[in-house]
What does this fold into?
Amino acid sequence: MTGVIESQENKDLRAAVAALGARHGRGFDRAALWSEAAKLGYLGVNLPEQYGGGGGGMAELSIVLEELGSAGCPLLMMVVSPAICGTVIARFGTDAQKRKWLPGLADGSLTMAFGITEPDAGSNSHRITTTARRDGEGWVLTGRKVFISGVDIADATLIVGRTEDARTGSLKPCLFIVPRDTPGFRRSQIDMELRAAEKQFELVLDDVRLPADSLVGDEDAGLLQLFAGLNPERIMTAAFAIGMGRYALARAVDYATTRQVWKLPIGGHQAIAHPLAQAHIELELARLMMQKAAALYDAGDDVGAGEAANMAKYAAAEACVRAVDQAVHTLGGNGLTREYGLASLITAARVARIAPVSREMILNYVSHQSLGLPKSY
It folds into this structure.
């Protein structure tokens, strides 16, 4: 991809994934779609070819998620398994970790969840209290996590913990691979109002003992490794939101084109047409920033990608919420019926504003990092 113009290869990828999404549609079976997407090579399109991946990057993986979302069948675990966990292991994992995990993450036979959020830390990663201490040749993890997606279907969870720096005594973030059935690693499902194929869990790590090779990368490079996973997370959240917004907008446009109350379809009236046009413009603008973020990340510019990925996530979330709201409003009472399948998106669209980081924290990031304004915390 050069600038914001997609290569023909990526245009072909977009068309192929759109066709896959159209075959599954809004009432999709998550396991069946995951399996087919895996067989076609879409789930690991960003992972290294030597481990069975497509050799692409976030530009390609975001296309896959966006197009599935625009067909009404997004795969949330794509944000976590290949984008966050796969990227972190590919960049920082040992040769043994790469051989063990990347082929399975690439072909969909293995899935990995990501555990960072804690009950008392919220968006403040500096308040993470899950700790890891050395115990002989291995590690012992203790702590809690909350709102962790797909732990029940994941073979392992990449846990963000903190180890003590022997030189300063302060805690520093580190990443550990915790297999699902590890003793002391317990999960309980959170009762969510949101209807989604992937469930949310609270995790308890009660003196979870791990071998030395569970640590991913260098113990002293935790922040670098952590943000190497968070930038893809923001890019993929943007793709998720843009896809959802496109799906809602397409349903509204179809309805406005065919629904006739007076002399012409309702889409012929500017009060209907203009808000839908505005929603389309905002989604396209958000996609441009997402493409910029992906291009910077794939080029190895982690700093530039950090700013762009946060902006892309913010813009996509706002555009998605407005597109869904306008779509429901366009259909009137029909927009609230189960038949048209838009009402449930009202709740789902809010997720992009809240997770994985709130829009307020993104505004903090931009005000501090981009504008150089002082911090209030």
Summary: The chain has a mean pLDDT of 93.
